[in-house]
Amino acid sequence: MVHSQTIRKYSNEFMNIGVDARAFGMSNAMVAHSGDVNSGYWNPTGLLKIEDSEAALMHASYFANIAQYDYAGFAKKIDDRSAWGAHIIRFGVDDILNTTQLIDSNGNIDYNRISLFSTADYGVTFSYARELPIQGFQYGVNAKVIRRIIGDFASSWGFGFDIGLQFQKNDWQFGLMIRDVTTTYNIWNINEEEFQKIKDAQTQSPLQNQDLPENSEITLPKAQLGAARKFDFHNDMSLLASANLNMQFQQTNDIISTSFVSISPAVGFEFGYNNLAFARAGVGNFQNTLQISGSEKVSFQPNIGLGFHYKGISVDYALTDLGNQASALYSNVFSLKVDLSIFR
């Protein structure tokens, strides 16, 4: 076998989807103000804002319920200056038809030879956050383990690190998150026996790619720079406004794109009443999309969401891609967050 590796423009993309319906409702503009168990994903520095320990769950369906996206997280305060967390993400498609053996050696179609397999991506993250000696500054780090499985055909392990910072000055909050700061390295194990079955099944299609894929890939760093501010009004009303600049250090179809960096902005708003009920809206994922005519058009993804918080329990919902302004299909996202200290 020839071993090779490649730097992919899009690699481990399931780790870039996001977690928590609250965040989705605000178009993922979370890096500056995130401050709960879900900070392990958005910016591990925010774990310092939890009071004791928290747990979170989320479920979403993608591509007309074909793919299932699930998340669970836990975080706990260590002392007044540090906290830790652990989180797991699964993005999977189950019960895929394997038709590589549909035609037997005599050329006959035998539907009993069809089997099922699943493909699933797992991301496990361990987070640690600590205050810095400089007033107003905190930092957090993630260690990530990636596991990807494509039935019996192939599987991979990957490892990487993230680093985050948050700074607060008066009523303003600022944040920086660098994902895959050391690059994330995935090593694939290809089942050559199963791969040969695919090649044999494609003998009638010479245009199909029948070469073994690369056995390793590298995910390049990405950065998110954010700012947020909360405004408190009379009658227990509040408004949280936040913005992100999401950066990739390569040329993509983001609205701002150069050979060095590509940038897509995102803004989000959360209107709250008495810290009990919340309405959210946001817009992000600004892309230059190619039209059938050959011209380019700026697409974007508007989102909305609702939330309810009572005695340490938060239930949130988000509807992504409202009005189908982006190429992505809309999705319903539900999440639950619990302050575990209420059970003591």
Poorly predicted regions: none
Radius of gyration, in Å, reads 22 Å
Q: Major sheet: size, sense and barrel closure? A: 14 strands, antiparallel, barrel
CATH fold category name: Porin
How many structural domains? 1
Number of strands: 18
Strand content: over 45%
Portion of residues in helices?
Answer: under 10%
Helix and strand string, N-terminal first? Answer: EHHEEEEEEEEHEEEEEEEEE
Structural class by sheet pairing and helices? mainly beta
How would you sum up this structure, described in words?
- This protein is mainly beta.
- It has a single domain (18-343), classed as Beta Barrel (Porin), CATH 2.40.160.
- Helix content is 6%, strand content 56%.
- The chain has helices at residues 21-25, 39-42, 192-201, and strands spanning 5-8, 53-62, 67-79, 82-98, 115-131, 137-150, 154-169, 172-179, 184-190, 216-219, 222-232, 237-248, 256-257, 262-273, 277-290, 296-310, 313-320, 331-339.
- A 14-stranded antiparallel β-barrel has the order 2-3-4-5-6-7-8-11-12-14-15-16-17-18.
- A hairpin with a 2-residue loop joins strand 7 (154-169) and strand 8.
- It is globular, with a radius of gyration of 22 Å.
- The termini are far apart.
- The mean pLDDT is 88.
Short characterization:
InterPro entries: PorV. The chain is mainly β.
In terms of topology, how is this protein built?
Elements: E1 5-8, H1 21-25, H2 39-42, E2 53-62, E3 67-79, E4 82-98, E5 115-131, E6 137-150, E7 154-169, E8 172-179, E9 184-190, H3 192-201, E10 216-219, E11 222-232, E12 237-248, E13 256-257, E14 262-273, E15 277-290, E16 296-310, E17 313-320, E18 331-339
Parallel strand pairs: 1-10
Antiparallel strand pairs: 2-3, 2-18, 3-4, 4-5, 5-6, 6-7, 7-8, 7-9, 8-11, 9-10, 11-12, 12-14, 13-14, 14-15, 15-16, 16-17, 17-18
Organism: Flavobacterium terrae
Pfam families: PorV
Protein name: Type IX secretion system protein PorV domain-containing protein
